[in-house]
Sequence to fold (1258 residues):
Amino acid sequence: MPSPTRRTRLVQFDVAPGRPADNTARMLEAIRQAQSDGVELLVFPEMAVPGYLLGDAWERESFLRECERCGREIQAAAGGTAVVFGSVGLDWKRRNEDGRVRKYNALFVAHEGRFLGPSGGPYPFVVKTLLPNYREFDDSRHFHDLRKLALELDRPLRDLLRPVELNGLALGCMLCEDAWDSDYGFSPLAALAAAGADVLINISSSPFTVNKDRKRRRVFARRVAALRRPLLYVNNVGLQNNGKTVFTFDGASCAYDARGGVLPAGAPFEETVLTLDLAPGPAAAFGRPLATRGDTVAEIAGALLYGTGRFMALCGAERVVVGVSGGIDSAVVAALYRRLLAPRDLLLVNMPGPYTSETTRGLARELTANLGCLGVELPIGDSVALTRRQVDGCEARSADGALRERLALTGFNMENVQARDRSARVLAAVASAFGGVFTCNANKSEATVGYTTFYGDLAGYLAGIADLWKTEVYALARHLNTAVYGRAVIPAGILDIVPSAELSAAQDVERGQGDPLVYPYHDALFRSWVEHWNRATPEDILAWYREGVLEEKIGYDGKVEAIFDGPAALIRDLERWWDLYQGTGVAKRIQAPPVLAVKRRAFGFDHRESQLGATYTRRYAELKASLLT
Amino acid sequence: MPSPTRRTRLVQFDVAPGRPADNTARMLEAIRQAQSDGVELLVFPEMAVPGYLLGDAWERESFLRECERCGREIQAAAGGTAVVFGSVGLDWKRRNEDGRVRKYNALFVAHEGRFLGPSGGPYPFVVKTLLPNYREFDDSRHFHDLRKLALELDRPLRDLLRPVELNGLALGCMLCEDAWDSDYGFSPLAALAAAGADVLINISSSPFTVNKDRKRRRVFARRVAALRRPLLYVNNVGLQNNGKTVFTFDGASCAYDARGGVLPAGAPFEETVLTLDLAPGPAAAFGRPLATRGDTVAEIAGALLYGTGRFMALCGAERVVVGVSGGIDSAVVAALYRRLLAPRDLLLVNMPGPYTSETTRGLARELTANLGCLGVELPIGDSVALTRRQVDGCEARSADGALRERLALTGFNMENVQARDRSARVLAAVASAFGGVFTCNANKSEATVGYTTFYGDLAGYLAGIADLWKTEVYALARHLNTAVYGRAVIPAGILDIVPSAELSAAQDVERGQGDPLVYPYHDALFRSWVEHWNRATPEDILAWYREGVLEEKIGYDGKVEAIFDGPAALIRDLERWWDLYQGTGVAKRIQAPPVLAVKRRAFGFDHRESQLGATYTRRYAELKASLLT
Fold:
């Protein structure tokens, strides 16, 4: 086992998805720098060349050839500095199951102009063992994995899990695996240690979700302490997306010593390098004990600001229009953007309608003043009246006059007319005149049950806070005031007022009339449907309710008895929202803007869903019957 | 090997996704009927109990328990009639890779109150060997497969591919596999035949795409003739979706005899049963030679009518509003709906604007008269003028007056104002007043390059023809006139007029000014990007162009020289559309309505994409440089 230390550098950089030439140019620059700094081992993240979340762009052969060409350039540039990086591994002679060229999510080690593969393996690169297909990932759609390869080669899997030998140093290389305790019945980390790895290298392209990094560090620290090997974890920063769902990457790269101590590479979401003199094997002892606690709201605020700024850049948006109602959601969105934009590039538009109160109108003005940005008030009354005049009472008829029908707009129809008038008529036109985009301010509570209007408040270029429950939006508002701005940019009145759409006389904030949701309870209920491990359904809710453990199971601090006057009322409410969640809620999410993910189960690719209509199990019907008798 | 025939029945039925109790009730009824008819072997489709395309509903344990309960009822009902059906196979003791309960896409054989599994296998059900992750499928996200199981059990895969023994008859059972020649390097069909299967049973839940059934029959017929075994293929009918993409199931169930003859179960898209006296082994000879040709346009029309009708039912839509411009797309959509709806439930709305010609206005009236349904003309001029007055020239300012900016709407901005006014203001209000939904009439050519307006012509409850290129829309129009209606319901003028958005003075149909697309060429070009096996990119296009094979490679009947005055013009056009396809085109598809799929690579789940912006490979840049010098 080698004893001298090796000068090692981890490069946490901003990988541009789908732009191999750009990424490679940056990597080549880092390689030159490392060579001049005497670095022996240089480690880049998983999929550093192509980026990771590319959809079916993986099926473009021209793109694959571009990646291969980039790899050859890195190979040629790597002299005495061993360069570890992620890219797509290609086998042009074999086919994937989709019939296309065989692709692997692969780790390359370039050294002295050559690629070094695991000893005795079939390829000059390391193949990812466990492909993620859960959450936002689709790896099996594009990549072959090591298990299938083992079957094809008729070799035991462990034979293919060997270190890469580098001048007497055995590198136990893997790709973003083995961080979790229970997901797999198999540990590549342990297999590589058992096969003689001196140092473990885990390159990763793992999106941010709140609390994920702390959990990963805890698990890895425990593992490396048990295996007595140092581990280098390198993740990228930047923004990648699956279309509907937009993910930030916080990096959180770090080195673990052989006792479980941690040396972080730098701040989250920042490009950074960590250079250390690595003593392989059990001697490594450079880290600090783990930090065990973090600030969830602060982490979310950081991810939202980073992700929003990066998404604007992706879309080429330099100016932003926010429709501000005087309510909490739009106020939070406006306050977030004000951190990213000069006051002249942020325009807040208040669009009072027939049911808008003086209170919310004033709060919107106060918010605009606090943020110091541009504002304008554009009432919708004239246009809404025009639409009513034009449609309500107009007669449709067949050409021969045999069929005639007079159209009539209900009060509910007119609520949606107002919402659409604000977004699809005013905001869209203002945004184009302003040379910018307009935002969707929907939160996750509304998005869950579709408490939004198609082409109305559901519209926008990005649904930036749609992964936050209403209660989390309030927490974020307080955090923005106290920690980010250090003053109450979001007026106290906005934090105190009852949440209301103000689309009808029945939604009068002056009389305390607001949304039909008891947010702390309904947030907890909806969270159990969307984010709970086994996706709670009404059956689970009633079973828990009957056992008296509903509050505990869904994480609601209050008592359901204080909200519902008995099981019939609870069940009526439960079915009302479940029907919406599974009914028009799905239809609306299909046409919703991209969602910026900060937690598990953001809508979109991390929460795949079909339009099926609301269904209830027979066990639910039985529980309901027993509760109602 | 057994010689007596067995009375066998294939049940092609309409599987309701996510509704196990409903499906099971229908299956139990079919079992009772089969028992009274003396059927010995009764075969239902893959995933007949739960349905197939369910998104993450597979993660709901309450749903899985419901499926298991349904399975027990079928098990109890199956007496002397052996019942083959698909459902989810559960192993509550093991975990999938996502940490949840272990699930399989499974085939069950219920007989005499018991489930019969493959001889020597670990479960009382057949596990799907090859999980599809390509196209619209996500099987590895939810299900474990036989290969991983073989690795875990440390047994060769072929050991687990054994027939199910049923009273001396060896059933070689599989799930929707092995239909294609090249996708897998492995044939479960051949393995089961080699293991002694007397009859092969392939249950399936395979969506319709045009020409797929003919290809499948050709491959299966060849296989069974080589293996000398009859094969029973049972697929479901109905509609299932992945949210963004809506799939029809045509069934196309049939029995193959041991020489490759085919006995179809009935018409596509229809519930049907096929009862036959099956002679197992090489003696089976009941089929007819294959039909080798079909009518593509007729197949597409059939799928669109079926899918649209079923999607309306799914959404609870009984009345439909179509905005008709006098152009081809909306005319085709209106003509399709008229086949599904009484004239009183279909309302065509023409919305003339400042640039609408008398010609298209007249054609819209003619179409409405031909279809005999309701119509109304609702001009948008007043509203568009109101929006211009309100936004153009209005001043935004900061509260302290330090910042001031006067907004100005350009001509291009006003084009989008018109499009949004039509859909988000008029059509949405009319649809709600009419008690119905309104349609999105975008075709695949427009959807590819985002030649649509957000919240304008991109809006609607379903994009029913968005899987058809513009040239296919014309073919469908002619088919509707000649074969479906037998008269020119779509006026000749609509087929003849130049396609145009009529949103500016430069799009004057009276002067032959229309869309900036040469449809036959651009359809072929876009098809190569979207539907080509390896997803052509500008690099491929230029390489083909340089080799003089572009027309052949993309399937364009004309000559590019007739369109472009040299390589510079071709390249300028190529980059213009590629930038849109990869730029705002993606953003628009994210917010587009569900797409009804009829071909390979419908947008959505069969064409996953990320917002990455348009990129070009370095090889493209080199080809471009060489062509321009």
